[in-house]
Write a structure and sequence with these properties.
The structure is a single chain. By secondary structure, the chain is mainly alpha-helical. About 50% of the residues lie in helices and about 10% in strands. The strands form 2 sheets. A 3-stranded parallel beta sheet has the order 1-2-3, with helices on one face. It has a two-stranded antiparallel sheet with strand order 4-5. Helix 5 crosses helix 6. The radius of gyration is 17 Å and the shape is elongated. It starts with 5 loop residues before the first strand and ends with a helix. About 30% of the residues are buried. The mean pLDDT is about 95.
């Protein structure tokens, strides 16, 4: 009745199981205007985002990409990569070989691991750039699927991937 530009859903992702969050989104979504933006506050794992899009949410924000980066965690299409793991000590591959972000184009897993292990701020910065790029690319692909009326297929492929279970 207020004619707002969009509507926010908040107070979720604060400890309840993901399935409960999805149930609440479904219960709230049906009462929201269909022609207005739906904003889910503070939700940011790749799988949570795609689940919310599946339920009609349009917009998100979350500290997760940068917070995870500060702890040495990188989002990839194979799941979360913990850059503190010793197996990356001499690994000359990019964080995610399928990624074209500046971090992946210019730095190896070994270098990123070294920075993170030494608590060098540049490690968290480079991982933040990568994680944000990953999520923006994921959302670009989701948006393309929505516009092509192919979101269900995109969503199912993600949910069947190894990455989905990791988030």
């Amino acid at each position: 009745e207020l004619g707002l530009d969009g509507y926010a859903i908040g107070g979720l992702a604060v400890g309840e199981p993901a399935e409960v969050m999805y149930e609440v989104i479904e219960a709230v979504e049906e009462h929201m205007p269909q022609d207005k933006i739906r904003y889910l506050m503070g939700v940011g794992t790749p799988t949570n985002i795609l689940e919310a899009v599946h339920r009609g949410v349009d917009l998100f924000d979350c500290v997760m990409p940068s917070r995870n980066a500060r702890h040495g965690h990188a989002f990839t299409n194979e799941g979360v990569r913990n850059m503190l793991n010793a197996k990356y000590t001499l690994d000359d591959q990019p964080i995610d070989p399928t990624c074209d972000c500046p971090t992946c184009k210019n730095h190896t897993r070994a270098y990123i691991r070294h920075l993170v292990k030494q608590n060098e701020m540049l490690g968290a910065i480079l991982l933040s750039v990568h994680n944000l790029h990953f999520l923006l690319d994921l959302m670009r692909r989701a948006r393309e699927a929505v516009l092509a009326d192919a979101y269900e297929e995109f969503f199912e492929q993600w949910m069947e991937s190894d990455a989905a279970a990791d988030y």
